[in-house]
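Batch queue: ligand-bound targets. Current item pairs a single chain with zinc ion. No template structures supplied; prediction is de novo from sequence plus SMILES. Inputs echoed for audit trail.
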Amino acid sequence: MKSIRQFLHVAAMAMLCVPFALGQDSVRDYRRAHERQILQEFTTLLAIPNVASDRENIRRNAQFILEMMQRRGLNPQLLEAKSKETPPAVYGESRVPGATRSIILYAHYDGQPVDPKAWTASPPFQPTWRSAPFDRGGQIVSLPASGEINSEWRIYARGASDDKAGVMGILSAFDALRAQNATPSFNLKFIFEGEEEAGSPHLGEIIELHKDLLQSEAWIICDGPVHQSGRKEVVFGARGDQNVDVTVYGPRRPLHSGHYGNWAPNPAMTLVRLLASMKDETGRVTIAGWYEGVEPLGAAERRAIAEAPAYDNQIREELGLAQTEGNGKLLMELINQPSLNINGFSSGDVGALARNVIPTTATAVLDLRLVKGNDYRQQVQHLIDHIRKQGFYVIDHDPTDAERKEHALIAKVIPRAGGYNAERTRMDLPLSMAVVAAVQSTSRDPIVKMPTSGGSLPLSIISDRLRTVTISVPIANYDNNQHAENENLRLQNLWDGIETLAAVMMMKGISRG
Ligand SMILES: [Zn+2]
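Prediction returned. Tokens below.
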């Protein structure tokens, strides 16, 4: 009996150890044989400007991705919001006979706005190869007509990493499966959003309008960078986000700073003082209630943080920072706390336009990152309460004459549309463990498991409406300049990403019925 049991045990273990009908090697072989084809399609996609507010070009992106999915037999369609002005999501699916469960793979095709003057490595929509990172001396190179392509090369373009790499990685991984006739144990669905960088203001509406199509066991989100150490990563949550514009007021017209300085209050100084009251010198937010309700991490999450490679010293050195915020706490710990950031500040002019004036207004754009347990509306309320406590009269419009006469300190506070809460999926769910096992199967190094990413994704918009879980499987290099000028993708990250995503599409542990 014992030996039979042992035999069954060994057989069961053997089955667990051969989780994929399709091995990593065959995905790699497929990729090696199709590199130029993949990069040709990728650079064509990158050349289409993808700022969400550029209605015409954003539709061209959607149309191009629709055609990419048509070529792959994914029966694609555009998922429109109520208004045709809204960038559509592109949806497609591959049904597996007999399977009733589905996994959705998500990426977004829009990118952050660009300031072409700042793009010194390449114009943002002229995809350009460089032999190494531009800021480390990388030269412009062109792809060789044949033979091996150096996988340390980087491609520069808006969206190269965030997040057209996701679109390309997902569709190439599917190509690799299809080429080998590998069949997942669940249906594959694909959705590519066109408004993520604008805060996903219509994703909820699109989900409501197309709810039946979008049902699934999980959304696998392919967005953002892998860990700074270069190790592959699975991320179980994302911070929420809310932007708020704060404007304070000085004299009604700009004043000569000699004639009126020391007499007329300067709004830049007023706003600097207000902002400085919001954080202490260690970076802790001093606004009352800011950290209220934050959900503590569970045991699996705390273990994952302890196991993650220590990288803070190296990244601090790379960034030229003598000291960081948080009293010595690790980056990975601190991103599990809500933050308050000044995105930008404007009052008067600098450089060639600088003049000796007392400006009329000063404006800051604040960026509130939220964690599980925070509510974005509540966080804005804490901010407003704090501004009031500093003696400001808070309004949502430019002050009237009467208001100006009555109040010395006036702040216009406008929360931007599109705020949302943080989301975090438990690491000990069977599905969470299946995703970790799949990604780990493609890497010799231990992968990094992050309870939450520092960046934000509208995950609660998805999980609240569809009652599903979200898990992020990022593929881009961490030093990709996402959201900034000179955004780039290291080629090896795309290649690795294809293997990662193919393994996720073939993961076990999700039954057909
Ligand atoms: Zn992104």
